[in-house]
Specification:
alpha/beta, Immunoglobulin-like, TIM Barrel, 2 domains, seven-stranded mixed beta sheet
């Protein structure tokens, strides 16, 4: 293998780019667009990407029909010895028959990502070959990872497309500009996304036993961490802690300790770790006085044992109790008081979390009891005419709320079966959204807004909810949205091939990951130049408020590029060009 290196103080690279003109062929584009199979598409014969070290980045290969038995391979033009540095997926489509609120659309939408070779067992899956019908397109998604030891520079590589319908392979070019900044393996921004391990077992056609549940949850947790997401309630899957029996700490260490401190993921990050742990409540989930199954004394004893263990392991900052979700009546607010009182008896440092707004908490005299305040995004910044002007998130000195997270819900697209899309105020429009039939920017922008509003964490209620009630591969319409509470697909062998079940990621997860990595870049730049306002000035064309942000991918990509260039400026390192003469491609 021969490595050519060209170094310049600054290198500005121009690439020959050709618009799509042929009826049959293959083209490249960036990841910030969802390509539907019947759309007239445009692509290029080259694409330019940029990334920090220790960051994931993606591109898409557009296959335009008619193509038979299409396969895609690629070169990786940077050294990659410690781990897998690229994964190639076939994009699967979901037929949407009910739109998500006022801004969705019916028809086929790209979402699930079927790997050619999975990263967990290195098994061949049903990614290829691909058949592209006449007058349609199909998409291949490619993830690349930049190892932290990669030398900053511009790396040039090739993507090859072969098909029995082509007289010769199509060769496409890509470049990755690697900035000198290195993103952390453990995210600095806290996430806690929900996961139902019992439902996952059923969706994977596996028997509900303790060993299988832990094993499958570990795969999902690894998959989430490869997307910078923590499944906050992962301990719920383990009867060693989530039962009314004695806690088996040795089993907990064996099953989970690597995720507490440092774990090397099968693709990409080395030294990743969870950012949050929701404490199970096996003795008393609901502290209401009318709950006969609630054993408060045993629950307090359980909390005390758990918090003491994590204190001794220096992991107590990860812990929180999901105290109450969206309290709506006086009984609910009283429940919060009673629960937090018992929580404090167990350990004064064990944090309480409540999803509500600060004004509501004050009105019910519980604002001093909430450690992690989690308002819904729709109530953070009042949208004119939308009946949310009475709420805000500003905590005063007499409020506890040491931490401020937020979350999105069906209110981002409308929780009613037929939202009023012509109300004149757009109350169910223009919010960040994790729905399948919303734009890639809508899926990615949440973390940009987290930086804008100085949020410390994000809560999301589910990643596989549809497994409880249906089939993610057929229909994900629930709570009036497509994909609400579902970001994974169950990858069982009869569906995707291979011999083992694995989690299947969605394009939406990749957009969430990219947004979280953007947020890390913003925080790095703020630390380097000592000015938060300077970073805000760089992203002001992208995000304006919770309900106002650009819908133009070029605007978001340009702002991100500017932030990366500023990080590079601070490093005072040269940018070089690298090119490998021998390709590293999939078989």
């Amino acid at each position: 293998m021969v490595l050519l290196r060209f170094c310049f103080c600054w290198l500005f690279v121009c690439f020959a780019i050709t618009d799509v003109v042929d009826a049959t062929g293959a083209y490249l584009t960036h990841s910030l667009v969802k390509i539907r199979p019947f759309e007239s598409v445009s692509g290029k014969d080259s694409v330019s990407l940029s990334a920090c070290r220790n960051e994931y980045e993606s591109m898409q290969v557009i296959l335009v029909g008619q193509l038979d038995d299409a396969n895609v391979s690629m070169e990786i033009p940077w050294p990659c010895s410690k781990n897998i540095c690229h994964v190639i997926y076939r994009v699967e489509y979901l037929n949407i028959t009910d739109v998500s609120g006022c801004q969705g659309n019916v028809g086929m939408w790209p979402d699930a990502l079927i790997p050619h070779m999975d990263v967990f067992y290195n098994e061949s899956r049903r990614g290829f070959p691909i058949h592209v019908p006449q007058n349609e397109n199909r998409v291949v998604w490619i993830d690349v990872f930049i190892p932290p030891e990669t030398m900053p520079g511009v790396y040039e590589g090739k993507v090859s497309v072969r098909s029995s319908s082509l007289s010769k392979p199509v060769k496409l070019s890509y470049t990755v500009t690697v900035w000198s900044a290195t993103l952390p393996s453990k995210s600095s921004f806290v996430t806690s996304f929900g996961f139902n391990s019992t439902a996952a077992l059923l969706a994977h056609n596996q028997s509900n036993n303790a060993t299988a549940k832990v094993a499958l949850t570990r795969l999902y947790l690894e998959s989430a961490l490869m997307n910078r997401i923590t499944l906050g309630n992962f301990l719920d899957s383990d009867i060693a802690i989530n039962s009314r029996n004695r806690i088996h700490w040795q089993t907990i260490k064996s099953n989970w300790q690597q995720f507490f401190f440092s774990t090397d993921l099968p693709f990409g990050l080395q030294g990743a770790a969870v950012t949050s742990i929701s404490v199970p409540t096996p003795f008393c989930w609901n502290f209401s006085n009318v709950n006969p199954a609630c054993d408060k004394k045993e629950q307090v004893s359980f909390w005390k044992e758990v918090s003491n263990y994590f204190d001794n392991e220096s992991m107590s900052p990860l812990l929180y109790d999901y105290t109450f979700d969206e309290p709506k009546n006086e009984d609910a607010w009283n429940n919060i008081c009673d629960r937090v009182h018992n929580l404090r008896k167990a350990n004064s440092t064990l944090k309480s979390l409540v999803t509500t707004e600060i004004n509501k908490a004050r009105r019910h005299n519980v604002s001093a009891l909430i450690d992690i305040l989690v308002p819904i995004i729709n109530y953070v910044d009042p949208k004119p005419g939308c009946n949310n002007t009475q709420n805000n998130t500003q905590c005063n000195s007499y409020d506890t709320c040491k931490y401020l997270w937020w979350y999105q819900s069906c209110m981002s697209h409308g929780c009613e079966r037929e939202p009023d899309c012509n109300d004149g105020n757009g109350c169910s429009k223009d919010w960040p959204s994790y729905m399948i039939d919303r734009s890639a920017i809508s899926n990615r922008v949440m973390s940009w807004l987290s930086y804008l509003y100085e949020m410390q964490g994000e809560l999301y209620w589910g990643t596989n909810y549809i497994d409880e009630i249906g089939d993610a591969w057929k229909d994900q319409f629930h709570y009036e949205g497509n994909g609400d509470g579902t970001l994974f697909y169950p990858g069982y062998p009869t569906k995707i091939g291979g011999n083992h079940s694995i989690p299947i990621e969605s394009i939406r997860m990749k957009q969430i990951r990219d947004g979280l990595e953007d947020l890390e870049m913003f925080r790095l730049l703020e630390t380097q130049n000592g000015s938060r306002q300077a970073v805000l000035d760089l992203i002001k064309d992208v995000v304006h408020s919770t309900f106002s942000f650009t819908d133009n991918p070029d605007v978001m990509l340009k702002a991100r590029q500017t932030v990366g260039n500023k990080l590079q400026d601070h490093s005072h390192e040269n940018i070089c060009t690298f090119m490998y003469m021998k390709s590293l491609s999939l078989p």
